[in-house]
Amino acid sequence: MPLGFVSDHMEVMWDLDEEAMETAEEHGLAAVRVPTPGIHPAYVAGLVDLVLERVNGTPSAERPHVTDLGPWYDVCRPGCCENVRAGFKPALAGIAP
What we know:
InterPro entries: Ferrochelatase
Radius of gyration: 19 Å
Protein name: Ferrochelatase
Organism: Agromyces marinus
Pfam families: Ferrochelatase
């Protein structure tokens, strides 16, 4: 599940708890805010696992995953981005995809 915010802070609380809920109500939509993970033990353990995988150089194919999609890539696979095909060559930490 993608995370937009990892902790509750005033911006999240105002934007989501106040403005988003008010807008949803004005349009007759039901809305529920999912809590942010904050310091939930499973979330923190997942972050630790990600860091250790990178520090230990665990290859992507060997990283644990819970779906058939496998682990996510750290950088784009060669040729995967529309920008690359258009001639723009992005780089992450000096490493070209």
